[in-house]
Design a protein that fits this description.
With about 350 residues, the protein is an alpha/beta fold. The protein is about 45% helix and about 15% strand. The chain starts with 6 loop residues before the first helix and ends in a 6-residue tail after the last helix. The structure holds zinc ion.
Length: about 350
């Protein structure tokens, strides 16, 4: 399948790397959330065990993964021994190589089987696509806009939009240089439903509950600390839908809800206290999937369904991008329920 990566979203938010890419939040003794600062965007986590460190997700850029390694070293001199890839998306795995570079070949990369297959089949080709097409084209567009003093809609650049464009351009250029060096490191240890690391100080449970945000998302669950790291199954908005299986995602969310936890480290956005945001997402997804099912049963077209389905009562739960995310969710659910997504 063609690889169309979500560059606009990631690049708009990508700024030139600061020395400190993350807010490091200690969520429990030995458990840290790495919340991406504006521009870094995606989160990670690290867990300091008696003998080694476990890292969850590695961000878009190896340089950001190296920034996180520097943060880990401020907390402990123990080596990173395990990296969990929650799913295949580039903003969660492109930094993988930084860990084997820093800590050597003993690092194990853990993922669900489908995630390894999708890193091979989608993430690796997407590096080439970004390198040869998406990023150079985005650079050209910005250079043209700056040269002409107008944005893509023909509006004159203001001092503010010019400064933003210049900052984006610098970021894209440094990203292009990093892309040339990326060698995607694959998961070395894959599993189907679950994998548990039994450590002297805690157990670390990694669960696959079925298809959701992608066909290979896992959560990392710490029963002793009552913490869950969710990847993009849960974010602070409606998660990205392009590779999702929305109707199946609901039962994944319900399985997450059944676990006993009080704090969530989501794939994007701040640490969540309690299950409130998960419950909002479950309520929205149930209503959305039911509405799409109903529209299909009534013989509507997708265009008619998009006009008639009204989920605005959920808008306040998901931030300013709700309208676009909601349409993307309806479209993806329509495709899933019409059998247009391969299993
Ligand atoms: Zn994702």
């Amino acid at each position: 399948m063609p690889v169309i990566f979500v560059l606009p979203l990631l690049l708009l938010s990508a700024q030139t790397g600061s020395a400190q890419s993350f807010d490091i939040i200690r969520v429990a003794d030995g458990v840290y959330a790495a919340i991406g600062k504006p521009g870094v965007f995606s989160n990670g986590a690290f867990i300091v065990n008696k003998d080694e460190v476990v890292v969850v997700d590695t961000h878009l850029r190896p340089s950001w993964a190296r920034d996180l390694i520097a943060e880990i070293r401020k907390v402990t001199d123990k080596p990173v021994r395990y990296v969990v890839d929650t799913h295949w998306h580039p903003d969660h795995i492109q930094g993988n190589q930084a860990y084997v570079s820093a800590f050597g070949p003993m690092v194990e990369y853990l993922a669900q089987h489908n995630t390894r297959d999708d890193i091979l089949g989608k993430a690796i080709p997407s590096v080439q696509e970004q390198l040869t097409k998406d990023v150079p084209e985005a650079i050209q567009r910005l250079e043209k806009a700056l040269a002409e003093g107008k944005d893509s809609r023909g509006n004159p650049l203001t001092a503010e939009t010019r400064a933003q464009s210049e900052s984006q351009l610098a970021s894209l250029k440094s990203y292009l240089e990093e892309l040339k060096q990326i060698q995607i490191t694959l998961p070395t240890l894959t599993f189907d439903r679950s994998l548990i690391l039994h450590k002297p100080d805690r157990a670390i449970h990694i669960y696959y509950f079925g298809k959701g945000h992608t066909r290979g998302d896992v959560v990392v669950y710490l029963p002793k600390e009552k913490i869950i790291a969710t990847g993009d199954l849960l974010t602070n908005g409606i998660p990205f839908m392009r590779d999702a299986y929305p109707s199946q995602w609901i039962s994944v969310l319900e399985s997450m809800h059944k676990l006993d936890w009080s704090q969530a480290i989501p794939g994007h956005g701040g640490v969540q206290q309690g299950k409130g945001q998960l419950e909002k997402l479950i309520a929205y997804m149930k209503d959305m999937v039911a509405a799409v099912k109903d529209a299909i049963a009534k013989g509507m077209t997708l265009d008619d369904a998009k006009k008639s389905i009204d989920l605005s009562k959920h808008a306040g739960d998901f931030g300013p991008n709700f309208p676009q995310s909601n349409v993307a969710a309806i479209e993806r659910t329509w495709a899933e329920l019409s059998g247009k997504i391969p299993d």
